[in-house]
Amino acid sequence: MMETNKLKRGLSLLMIFGLFFISNAQYLTEGFESSSIPTGWIEEQVLEDLHWSYQEGGNTIGGNTIPAYSHSGDRNALLLGNGSTWGETKLITPELDLSTATNPKITFWHAQKEYLNTVEKLRLYYKTSATAEWVLIQEWDSDTENWQEESIQLPNPSSTYYVAFEGRVLYAYGIGIDDVAIADNFACIEPSGLSVTNLTDSQADLSWNENGSATVWDIELVAAGTIPTGNATYENVTNSYTAIELSPATSYDFYVRADCNEDNSNTSDWVGPYTFLTECSTIDAPYTEDFENTGNIPACWGQSGANISNWDFTDNISVGHVGDNDDTYGTSTESGGYFAWIDDSQLNFDSNIGLETPSINLSTVSSPILTFYMISNNEGDNHESAGINVLVWNGSTWTVELTEENNTNGWVLKTIDLSSYSGVIKIKFEVYQIGPESVNNSYFDDLAIDDIMVKSANNVGINTVVNNQEFTIQPNPAHNYILIKNAQLNTENIQIFDIAGKLVKQVKQQNEEQTFINIDDLEKGIYFVKIGTKSNRLIIE
Questions:
Q1: Which of 119, 127, 60, 145 is nearest to 90 (CA)?
Q2: Domain stops at, among 166, 184, 202
Q3: Residue 266 pLDDT more than 90?
Q4: How much is the pTM?
């Protein structure tokens, strides 16, 4: 089994070197498979008379040989200390001609296991003539039990060039080196033109322009605004690449780099970020949006149209426009609180302003309908008015299903039949001007919407229940129980509906004075309690 593993390592390295040098100018390869110093290599003793040997693995102490094997093949170079005095010896390559190299690199593997806190050192040097002084490139003095790869840029390439490995040793497992290669890694050019297409709620196609000869690339994908780590999320990918298992409605930054040698030994700099947002997941009907989102646009909703007016979300407009939650117009939506509105009291109101829902799946309800509340309030008789269209997207076409151009007397309920649609739809509320700007170039018709619901026409729903209570609910808001008082109504059952119109609880009325109801099993939210034809709103916190 050991021989088989060594053979596999040797074949793997041969394949790597074969690929490596097909696309790069080769100057040197050495695997130290001879029992003596390789042809053309020389030693230079610096301290003590120590010599490099060529064997399998490292030194043996107490029956343990570390590393146990060469990185590949049967032998590696090894420098051992004499156990009493620090020694240093260089192992020097043959003379090299790097005059044509544009980006020469040396790649090698090394191991240097410490013993009794004695950590030996490996140093890498170069010089540009036989008589020049050695120049230190880098040194390693960490405890390295297993073979570790290094890939180092060689500075100042010239027609006469030497590289030296110098071991500083005393008494440990020795300094081992193996599989040395020097090649010209032609400059790896950065990609450009990052783009993202075919976005869904869980995947995206990432692509870019290649400006060199790379055929594989690395990608790093992070949450938008996050500092990249420099570590690839996806390695050795093709162009384009489909990133999968993404989170819906999430912003990402994507970076890409070229991998010119297909082994990360010669890569371009990272390019990016390109920021993209995944789609929202399709939501099954029944669906409700009451804009109770602390003044922010709801998740997965969108705005369209370019204008100085945009949709806003509030629970109180101090200047006395539409929808004040102090019930300025004597009526109220079912949910109360926040609503969506647009202030048309602006100049140059010359384009449609849309507010668009997420994708909604109608196949989960029968006889689907859309219901919502709206206010249209023209604040001056001598000013132009604005209208609102409600459009439905069937996957290919927007169709106007409702147009309203008149003022309303407070909040009014609107219902649209969606039975002609199937599958996935979107809905858009789009405000537009009526007629030319004729009076003071102004529009003073503010509009508001609230409590958008897509549901089955067969559901009772909150929009078919009016707050005409003849009973009280205590406490309200409630946590784990409620007490219905003064319910002197000719019915046995008390029903509780959620905001989507689904019956979630039904109990028998205990007496005409009061009824205790445990609500521990209900989630936080807005509900409606119905007794006969009368109803009242309940908030569970």
A1: 127
A2: 184
A3: no
A4: 0.48
